C-alpha cells in the first residue's frame, strides 16, 4: 500500500428512501454520464470488477495509485473494513445481472467537468484556498444508474497535484434501499474509506485507518440524500489524500443547507408557535459580509467566500429559543442580531465557573451562580462579608492643566486602594503624579467614587455594587467643570479578583482640568449620587462642590458635574435577578483629599453608604405589605402587614431587633458587635484583624512577609521584597526589569543600542549580551577588525615572557597550549614533571583526570555533528528551530529579527517525518517526535547523533513540550488520543489525560505557574484546553469559532496564549486567566507550528513552505524566510541563549518527590509512573511543600 503501481477497489451498494420533497439533489444534477460521454460499462452480473489504468495517479491516504478497480463485488459484506484500499460509495449486494441496472465509469479531463468538480470542492471547503479548474488534473467518475427499485448515486474522484478529493452524490428520488442482505440477515449499508492493511513492525501487518461515513443504523444511510457536508443537499465532499504528508480523511466543512421554500415555511410555523417570555422578539443572522471581520459568540466566523462560489450561510451550532426585550437591542438599517440562550448549559458542566464560595443553580434557560451566606458578589466572584478589600491597578493619562497647550502624560502609575467593608470607608492612593498635575487632581475624589460604590455600607433592602455585579465591569465617566466647561473623561476597567484576592483595576484619564495652584488644599463637601439600574447597565449623575483654599488664606468654591455609565454582564437565566433593580442613592461624606508633593502621591478617602433614593434613614418601624408587590413602607395600613427581616412588631409598628443583645455570640472572640437598623456588624478589637474567612478575629501581629515568603511580589529572579515595618513591605523590580514589583517584565536593552555598532545584541531575561559580528573581535561592547588575544593566548604569552630573542619560558614552569582558535587544548601537560590532565574551557583542571609520567589523560573525543557539509552545530545566541521533513534547521535571531542568510541545518535525519520540536535550554538539547518510527528522540545541538528517548507504545506522537525546571517532557499522541509525561531520559512514563481527546496535537507548558495547554483539532468539535501540569483541574479555554487549531505558544512575559488556526486562517491570542480573546493576525494561509519571542510570533505555513514573522502588537507580517528545500514545514520552537527566569517547586531536589514531580498552580504533585509496580513510589497531589 502506498506505492505507485498498486491498485484498489471501489464498491457500490443500495439504499431505501421515501422522497417527500423536490428541493434535494436531482438526477439531472449528476455529472454527465452514459455512453454519449464515453463511459465504460461494468460487465453485468454479481461480484465483478474491472481494472482501469489511470493517466495520472490518484492520492489515497499517504499513497499514490496508477490503477483502480470499479467493482460490484459483495464478498466483503459484513467484513468491513477490508484488507486493501477501498472507497465504498455504498457497500451492499449490488447485482446487475438482470440487465436492468448499469455501472458506468471513466476518466475525464474536460474543462466543463473539472469546473463542476472545483465548484463542489470550493463550496465544501470555503475556508481553504480556492481550487481552480486549471489546478485540477483529471477526474475518475463512477455512476450507478437508477432503475426500478435500485439506487442511483455517483462517486467522483478529483485530483490536483498534491490533493485528491472524493465527491459523492446521492439524489433523493434515486435512493430506494437503506439495507442489504448479509448472511441471512439485514444490515445497514456502509459508506466510507479504508486504507487496508499496513505494515507493522518487521514481518507483520495490521488494519490501517478506516473512515466511516455511515453508521450501523439505516437512518445514517437515509441521511445521505437529506443532509450534506458541502452546503448542497445530497452532495458529500472529502479530502482523501495529500502529498507529501497526510493526516486523516477530511470531510467538507459546510453542514448547513441554504434555505428553501419548504424548509422556511416549516421553520416559520415552528417559530410562530413558540411563546417568548417577556414579550421578546426573534431575530436572526444577517448575511455575512466578507470584508467585515466580526467575531461574536452569537455569530460564528464564517470566513470569506471565494468569488463565484455557491453562497452558503453556515451556522456552526443550533441555538435555542430566542428571548429578547425590545429595549435591549438597537436595530438600525435592517441589521439584525442573532441572540440565543444556552439551554444545554447546566451546572453539571459549568460548576467550576462559579466562585469557590458560591453555589450553582439550574434554571429553565441555563444556570446562574449565587454567593453562599456570609459572602456577597455576583456568584462568579464572592468575597467574605466584613472582610477588608484591597485593589491594585495602573493609571495612564493625558491631561491638560488650566490653559496649558501641552498635556501632562503618565503611564503605568500605581493605584492602590483599601476598603473597610464594615463601615464603607474607602482609601485610594495614586503614585508618581508630577507636581504640574497633582494639585489639580485633588478635586477628583471621583477617581475613588466607583470603588466606594462597589463596597459601600449597605442599608437594609439595598445592595452595593459588588453585591450586584461582582468585580468585572467597565466604568466610563465624564466630568464637566463649571463654568469654563473643561471636560475630563475617566475610564476604569475592573478585571475581577486576582490570585492574591485583590481587585484589579485599570484607569485612563484624558481631557482638561482647571488648575489648582501648588500649595493649595481642597475640601469636598458631602454629596449624594443617584444610581439607576437596568439590564447590564447602570447610570449615575451628581453635582459636586469643592472649596480651594490658597496659601494667602483666600478660598474659592467651585463645582463640577459628574455623569457615569457602568456596563457589566449579568446572568440572564435568573428571572428574579434580571428584574429592574430599584433606584438607589450613594451618600458620600467625610471626604478627604491630599497631594503629597514630596512623594508625588495623591490620596483620597471617603465614607460611602448605599440606601434610599430620598435619603431617608431607615426607621425602626419599617415593614412591608405582602399584597403590594415590592411595596416598602414606614407604617403599614394594609391587612396582614409584616415586619421586615431584622425587625419585630405587629406589622403596623415595627422595632429593630438588637442582635448584639439578643444573640450574645453573634460575633466571635476578640470582636465587638455593632447593631444597625435591621442588621448588625462585627468589628475586631484593637490588635486583631479579620482572618481570611471574614469572621474570625486573629492577632494582628507584625509579619515580615518578605522573610516568611507570604508576599505578593514577583518571583525573586525578577523582583525584590523589602520589609518596611509592621506588616508592610515594598515590591520593586530588579535591574533589567520594569513594573510595579508585583509584576515585572524584562527590559529589552537591545532596543537602546547598548552594544558596539559592529556587534549583535542578544536580549536575555534581566540582562543582555553583546557579540561581535563575524570578522570583528572583542567583548561586544567594543569590537575591532584586529583580533585580540584569547584567554588561553594571554595566559600563555604572559608566562613565556619576552626577550630580544623572542618568547622564552621560565625553566620548569607549566605553559598552557592553545588550539588554532585560541582556546585551551582539552589535554594539557607539564613537560618538566611529565604529568598530564584535562581542562575545561577556562583552562581549569578537571578533577580526577591527572596522570603520572608516561601516561596521557583519557580525553573524551569531541562530540561533533554528523559529518555532512550542510550540517552545523548551533552557534551562540537565540535561534528558531523548525522541522522540515527529515531535518531540523535553525535561523539565528538578531534581537527579534531573523538572520536569514545564516540559516543552517543543525540535524539531518533522512527518511524521518519530524512533526514536533522542543528545546531544553539547560542541556542545550533538541527533542522531536517522529511519526515514521514512531518515536521520540533528542540530540545535543553542539554536535552529536540522535539519541532515542521513547520507542514503544507510540502510534502518532506529534506535539512535544519540555519543563526545563522539573526536567520532564510532555507529548500528545493523535492515534492513541492521549497526553503523556516522562522524565527527560524517557523513564518514569505516565499517562496524564486519555479521555475526550480526538486529534490532540500542539502542547505547551508554563512550568513557573504550573499550567499545561493543548489543542485538539477534531474537525467536529475543535477546542483548546488547559489543566495543571499533573492533569488535574482540566477545563476548556476555547471552543467557539475554531477550525483547525494546529499550533500553540505561550509568552510568560505578557501571559499571552496564542494559537494558529488553519481552518479560520487566523492567529489569535488571549490571557488564559482573563479570557480576553483577540485576533493577532488574519488572512494567513495554512499555519502548522507557532512560537513566540518578545513582541513577535513566528509560524510555519504549509501553503507557503516558509517561516513567517508577525508583529503581535501591530498585527502585521514583517518578514518571511524561505528555506532552500521547498517542502512542508512542521513544528517550530525558540531556542533561547539562556533559560527563561523563574522557579517552581520541582526545580530543587525534584520537589522532594521519589519519581515524577509535576508543577501545579498551588505547588506540585508527586506522581508515580504507570509501570511503578514493585517500585517504592510515594504519591501526593496538589499541595505546597
From TrEMBL:
Thyroglobulin type-1 domain ranges (all copies): 789-859
Secretion signal, residue range per the UniProt entry: 1-24
GO BP, one annotated term: cell-matrix adhesion
Disulfide bonds, paired cysteine numbers: 829-836
Region (Disordered): 251-308, 848-868
GO molecular function: calcium ion binding; Wnt receptor activity; Wnt-protein binding
InterPro entries attached to this UniProt entry: 6-blade_b-propeller_TolB-like (IPR011042), cEGF (IPR026823), Cueball_EGF_LRP_Nidogen (IPR050778), EGF (IPR000742), EGF-like_Ca-bd_dom (IPR001881), EGF-type_Asp/Asn_hydroxyl_site (IPR000152), EGF_Ca-bd_CS (IPR018097), G2_nidogen/fibulin_G2F (IPR006605)
Stored PANTHER family: NIDOGEN-1, VITELLOGENIN RECEPTOR-LIKE PROTEIN-RELATED-RELATED
Name by which UniProt lists this protein: Nidogen-1
Species name: Oncorhynchus tshawytscha (Chinook salmon)
